[in-house]
Amino acid sequence: MIFRQLFEPVSSTYTYLLGDEQTGQAILIDPVISSMERDLDVLHRLGLRLAYTLDTHIHADHITAALELKRATGSKIAAPAFDRLACADVGVEEGKPFEMAGILLQPLHTPGHTDGHFSYLLGDRVFTGDALLIEGCGRTDFQNGDADALYRSVTEKLFALPDETLVYPAHDYKERFVTSIAQEKLRNPRLGKGKSLEEFRNIMANLNLPYPTFIDHAVPGNRQCGVCPTDLPDKLVRYCQQMSASPQG
Ligand SMILES: [Fe+2]
Questions:
Q1: How far is the CA of 57 from the centre of ligand 1 (A)?
Q2: pLDDT tens digits for range 198-229
Q3: CA-to-CA dists, residue 6 to 172, 221, 236, angstroms
């Protein structure tokens, strides 16, 4: 399998490319609209054709590139069925493997950051979206977020995976790329070292995070599988502008 971890700097989002060498088909997990041209360039350089985009959840900090990539390449839009997006071609559900050209993803419903949030297990690695970040986790104060649900998602589903499972999150803000279930059980300051539900609730209730800058534009745009508003204020325009294509591939 061809595998790339691609970074989008405006929202510090990781997009994951999974490609099958034999058929030339590819999946992009959590593609971002502002890095879409870069992603297309990487696919082209690798000789891959995009078959699916697959989002972990309805993002509040960026616009998904799902719809624009569909327009550009004919790819299908896969998203959690839970969110009932009219624009999705495929609704993923826990217990129903999502398969493309022998690449088999096991969808895991991991609510708490949003109620419809999914993680995707691929053999010895798991794409955890915003449910589990490197020494962190997604916030639980918007989009039907729920600290109790996130605690259960992480401790009962993700921490139940083998310790050596590699954890690829949807974001990192400190130039870290990957972690493991064992590392997070040990080092995650919110959920590691056997933190109790009570402790986690307290931590999440006292984060004092600012109101998310882009949420009022991103959520409606993402419920349409990735539509950029036309009337963005100047300070937010960068969320919808193409970043320059990377010289490497
Ligand atoms: Fe998110």
A1: 7
A2: 999 999 999 999 999 999 999 999 999 999 99
A3: 12, 22, 22
The Cα 127–Cα 131 span in angstroms is 9
> Given a cut of 80, is residue 68 above it in pLDDT?
yes
Judge if pTM exceeds 0.90. Answer: yes
Q: How far is CA 56 from the centre of its chain?
A: 4
Between the CA of residue 78 and those of 58, 66, 244, what are the distances in Å?
12, 9, 26
Per-residue DSSP letter, 97: -
Question: How many angstroms is it from 141 CA to the middle of ligand 1?
Answer: 11
Tokens representing 40?
A: 């297309």
Q: Which residues pair with 136 in a beta bridge?
A: 133
Mean per-residue pLDDT, 162-172? 98
Rounded to the nearest angstrom, the distance between the alpha carbon of 136 and the centre of ligand 1 is 13
